[in-house]
Design goal:
alpha/beta; 6-stranded parallel β-sheet
Amino acid sequence: MPKFRLLRDRLLRDGVITPDQIYQPGEPPQSWLEFVHHREYVNAYCLGTLDAKAQRRIGLPWSAALVKRTCTAVGGTILTAKLALERGLACNTAGGTHHAFPDYGSGFCIFNDLAIATRVLQQQGRVNRVLILDLDVHQGDGTAWIFRDDPNVFTFSMHCQENFPARKQASDLDVPLALGMEDQAYLDCLAQYVPDLLAQVRPDLVLYDAGADPHRDDLLGKLALTNAGIYGRDRYVLETCVKAGYPVACVIGGGYGKSMDDLIFRHSLLHRAAAEVYRANT
């Protein structure tokens, strides 16, 4: 819970961002959540009446504060997407809850912010085609399932093969990675896909899930990227999208560590890369 505020504070303290670059999202109306999620599930979660088994599947104890944080994070991804369409590049300091399905949550994910933001922007006529570029270490199974029959949303997931979820869904393109993959092999693999994806999909918007959990010190990761590898990944993705003229909205995805300071720094690499790319291309 504290890492989202701490990430914002770290970005300000290190001069990565200035206060006037911060936009505060609100909570989206429930009707927007229901573009993706079943009304019964949304009501049960928001009111705290979800049954114990469903709560265990999410993995987080229910609280009113968590409901507010969850809904605000969804609002943040929607706002980030709108800002990206205006400015070319924007980053959330939360988001990436890609394990949430329409009628249940899973893997610390309650509502699927990537899917909701996509549906909101489609409904508002702001986008038609969307590319979801998911580089969290875990497969974006909920997102893949939600858009399985939607030709206007292309889901790409590059993830550790032997990791959660045990039962994978079929993204439009899945790239499973071997345990312990290090920086150069990872970056070489990524470079085989990103330019072709952009040329093939020609999206109105790229939604980039920049999970910090491929890091070698991540408690749930099973890959072996360094800080330099995570930064290089984010810099490459953002530069490739922006230089090709595709707006990109970023979320921080997963990250799990014993040291909160180290974890916050790993998450901040996305924003550091984004600041460099934005300055170099505007």
